[in-house]
Amino acid sequence: MKSKKLLADLLIIFIPLALCAGYMLWVYFTHQAGGYVCVEQDGVQTVSYPLNEDREIELKSQNGGYNLLVIKDGKVYIESASCPDKICVNHRKIGFEGERIVCLPNRLTVRIAKQEKAPDLTP
């Protein structure tokens, strides 16, 4: 009886661990490098930059705030911002398709997209 309980306990522990490890491996091996940085202010895409060109861009919000966006070595990060919490500044560098950095006080979203060409921003 004791061995059945031990086996059940081991299955309860190791099956979820194996599933989590499998999911992590799947995500690690299937993510793709992005091609463009898309900047959205107030939910509207305003501009797009290629990831392969290093640059610094100061993004100003309507409330008077700013974010300093840096594209360097195929990665993107926010170097400084006027927001009080600095969550966007402390976010890690991003460079893979689907990753995002969000600054709620300045209503800014920076996301990575994989596209063959820059998106058309004309209305």
Provide an overview of this structure.
This protein is of the alpha+beta class and 123 residues long. The chain has 2 domains: 1-30; 36-113, mini-chromosome maintenance (MCM) complex, domain 2 (Sandwich). Helices cover 27% and strands 35% of the residues. The protein contains 2 helices and 7 strands, in the order H-E-E-E-E-E-H-E-E. It has helices at 2-30, 87-90, and strands at residues 36-41, 44-50, 55-60, 66-72, 75-81, 100-103, 108-113. The strands form 2 sheets. It has a 4-stranded antiparallel sheet, with no helix packed on it. A 3-stranded antiparallel sheet has the order 3-4-5.
Give structural attributes:
alpha+beta; 2 helices; 123 residues; 35% strand; mini-chromosome maintenance (MCM) complex, domain 2; single chain
CATH C-level class of the largest domain is Mainly Beta
Strand order of the largest sheet: 2-1-7-6
The number of helical elements comes to: 2
Series of H and E elements: HEEEEEHEE
Silhouette: elongated
Task: Give the DSSP E fraction (strand runs of 2 or more residues).
Answer: 25-35%
Kindly identify the CATH topology of the largest domain.
mini-chromosome maintenance (MCM) complex, domain 2
